User: Fold this.
Amino acid sequence: MNFKEVAKRAETGPLMEANDFLMRRVAANVAKLQSDFDVRWDGQTLVNLDVDLADRCWAAGKQLLLSTGVYSMSSRRVIEFSPEEIDEALRFVPHRVPMGQGKDAVTVHHRAIEDPRPPFIFGGPFNADVHESVFVKLNEAFAQERIIDCLLFPGYLKELDGLVIRPGSGLSSRAAVLYGQWSREAVRRASRPGMPICGHAVMALNEIACTSEEWGLRQSDPRAMVLISELQVDDVTMSRTAYYKDYGCPIYMAFTPLVGGYGGGPDGTAIIATASFIAAIMMGGEIVHIGPQHIKYKQQTNNHSLFLGSLANQAVARNSHIIATTSHTTAGRPGSDQYPYEFSALALAVVPSGSNMTGPRPAEPLGFNDVSPLMARLFAEVGRAAAQLMLDQAAPIVEELYEKYRDKLTFDQAPQGQPFEELYDLDTLTPTPEHQALYEEVKEELVRLGVPLG
Amino acid sequence: MATTEEIYAKMQTSIQEYDQDAAAAAAGEAVAAGLDPVEAVENGFAAAIRELGEAFDRMEIFLPQLVMAADAMKSGVTVLEEAMEATGGTLERKGVVVLGTVEGDIHDIGKTIVGAMLQANGYEVHDLGIDVPAPRFIQAAQEMRAQIIALSALLSTTMLFQRDVVELLRNKGLEDQYFIIVGGAPVTEQWAEEIGANGYARDAVAAVKVLDSRRAEWAT
Assistant:
């Protein structure tokens, strides 16, 4: 199904209120499918080892999308799909997507369960608020980490000239232009002029102002769209998708299933996540990002999200060629050891489950520049090591790591850490000795736990 | 005729079973039996829904159940309110809240949870939905005779619209008439103080606690 047909159905599908869609279509069907396909969490497991459960989750998720469709919050109409249309979309879903230019061109690919190939690394500020005074340097510091394949979401320019930017305003269009210019400048400074930049400049339609083959984000750069929880879309995302698809950009489609929400626990929410993976393909996505949210926690390394991430990725990896990537957000912040322990636990859960990697970043609320390029290097190294592990080898390491932070999962409990400018020497763009020492210490501990870091 | 205890039990069961029709029917029985509506709400509906709110916080039930329970309570309370109004009285609620996600932000779920929890804890909630402009919050608060305006924002780029509501109230000279509470993933206590909001809640449970504990600041 092409995007034109999807856009047409957003104008012609059944009309209903959002609450009816969420309660009568999503919540009611998840509960039924969870029972029909026996998709249950045992309350203990962090990394799913039951591949039959993953296959049942896939079947339930596919059935859920057929039952619900995708709701347009703007037109209040449901975009519905037939079984044949879903099967055809899954048959022709790209299993590899090239991006970037020249010698910096790279390819992200579908990964199978226990796939020994290294995961693709989307790494960068990940939409943290980045102050204009360090925007280029911070992104250059990420781009100079050669292990990162694609610079991820170079950061929100929340303020310009000391003024907070209102989405949709003239100032936000200017922010989008500067975002494009400064991101390109950052990868050039790192001697990677064709490095792909996965863009998501501002939360409004004028985001596309960052596009320019000469100075900004290019046709070869993936662009991020976000579906709204659960299985919903709005006109801004539809419009951006329409533009970027025709412009030729790879489409990076994210969704954020909510544990404790309309899907219930992590098991029911895994069904929604699986449906959302397929929905993202139907809506034009080519790389699909899962970023679980939680009713109690803001990060993605809690026990529910670890299980959900492993199960949903396995469902997709075993039953489709969808290119999946998983968001890694944490409670601990850069500068603390909890930060790498958390993202390592999630990486070890999802990489052997068939996912690529997106992140890392602390969860909201964030201050300016609350990210670390050195920790992104470690994140990528752990991801590559995780690809060398079988699921049953990774699972006990995840459990040990989880024990290190399970009692410090909220913003108040977790270590507050430090911003980029305190973790790096901004003149040399190198980590401070203390930050470098933390990297070495954590790496040593991960090796001791059995992570095969070379 | 059923005893008072039997009617209260029916009211409680209707909430526990998320049954709007049963809640309205049980409330009708309470009216027919001449029970005091305020006591009926407290002994029939409120106790049951508070238990569900606690179960939600422990993740023993989830959002759909919480929403259905809040809807059931609303159906029952409407019957009791109508009975009170017919006799010239009004059913006192804990407080009246105008709630919404601020302009530019289309995220619904967090705000819905807060609304359901407030309703479950005895507040009258008017949910204005998503992408709500600042003047609309104030207009609705005036129309509904609200004491509390609750502002949700999921994005760091949209939270500044929380500031706009506070600023607009100040410019209209209305800042002392409403208790402004803010929340959402990027929102902090520090931000609440910076923009001049009265309260901050990190989640739905906290929102109830803040409003309950600071009742003296907003109750009129």
In short: Residues 63-86 of chain B form the longest helix (24 residues). Chain B has a mean pLDDT of 92.
